[in-house]
Amino acid sequence: KMCGVNIPLHACEHFYALTEYSEEIPKNLPILRNPDAHIYVKEDAGKLLIGAFEKKAKPWGMDGIPESFEFDSLPNDLDHFGPVLIEAMERLPILNDIGIRTYFNGPESFTPDDRYYLGKVPYKDNIYVSTGFNSIGVQSAGGVGKVMAEWIANGKSAIDLWDVDVARVLDFQDDTEYLRERSSETLGLLYSVHWPFYQFETSRNKIQSPLYKTLESEGACFGEAAGWERANWYAKNDQKREYEYSYG
Ligand SMILES: Cc1cc2nc3c(=O)[nH]c(=O)nc-3n(C[C@H](O)[C@H](O)[C@H](O)COP(=O)(O)OP(=O)(O)OC[C@H]3O[C@@H](n4cnc5c(N)ncnc54)[C@H](O)[C@@H]3O)c2cc1C
């Protein structure tokens, strides 16, 4: 919270490892992303950098983040990062032959819907926000800088940015437990298929209408809309009340 503005964010630990230098690593390697294995791999000065967007992330900072904490690192956790590294070794056999020089773990902030917060804060004069970059802040910086400059100079964005507009923040999201649980899911969603109609699995049932039980007894499969559990569709007979995501 700053200037009376609540920005719902939670930190998660983000892990990467850097190998030893090897002549076998070409300088012009493209970045490899393997969403099934939850890894990205990039060449870094003759070494390979292997980063993780694991399915179940490790939230951080539940006891508060010290004022002095700035661009610091956190202890490695091989119990957490190890399974992702093993997947990486299966995909890239060279990792079985060269050692790991550095393990790095640093916190990054995540929003409850995996989208950044940009733009003018509603009901406040001249407070603009550009935050919640969900681990893609460096790659997003150029575009975000451009649209924020336009937004501030002209009072509106030159392009439609409703999905990242800070105006979508809701009061019920000012809830540390909600944010902690949700952030354990959102980090991994970066490397998941972005299904239309995807329903979050964590931090559900925050707001139910008085009709919730009635709708449930009628077979409702609920989805979340602005924190409310909403009956999105009704199961027939033995149909499972679950979203099944597919290409079909
Ligand atoms: C390990 C790791 C690897 C990453 N790798 C990538 C990557 O490969 N590609 C990518 O796109 N992104 C990556 N990211 C994410 C990226 O670093 C962030 O998304 C980005 O730095 C966020 O930028 P920011 O300006 O919002 O916040 P920050 O970079 O955190 O900057 C915030 C600034 O505000 C300052 N500040 C804080 N409080 C105050 C205050 N009260 N008054 C004044 N100043 C204050 C801080 O000192 C800091 O300088 C990575 C993150 C981590 C942790």
TrEMBL record:
Example of a GO cellular component annotation carried by this entry: mitochondrial matrix
Gene3D superfamilies: D-Amino Acid Oxidase, subunit A, domain 2 (3.30.9.10), FAD/NAD(P)-binding domain (3.50.50.60), Probable tRNA modification gtpase trme, domain 1 (3.30.1360.120)
Residue ranges of domain FAD dependent oxidoreductase central in the record: 154-205
InterPro entries in the record: FAD-dep_OxRdtase, FAD/NAD-bd_sf, FAO_M, TrmE/GcvT-like
FAD dependent oxidoreductase domain sequence ranges: 6-151
Any Pfam family matching the protein: FAO_M
Protein name per Swiss-Prot or TrEMBL: FAD dependent oxidoreductase domain-containing protein
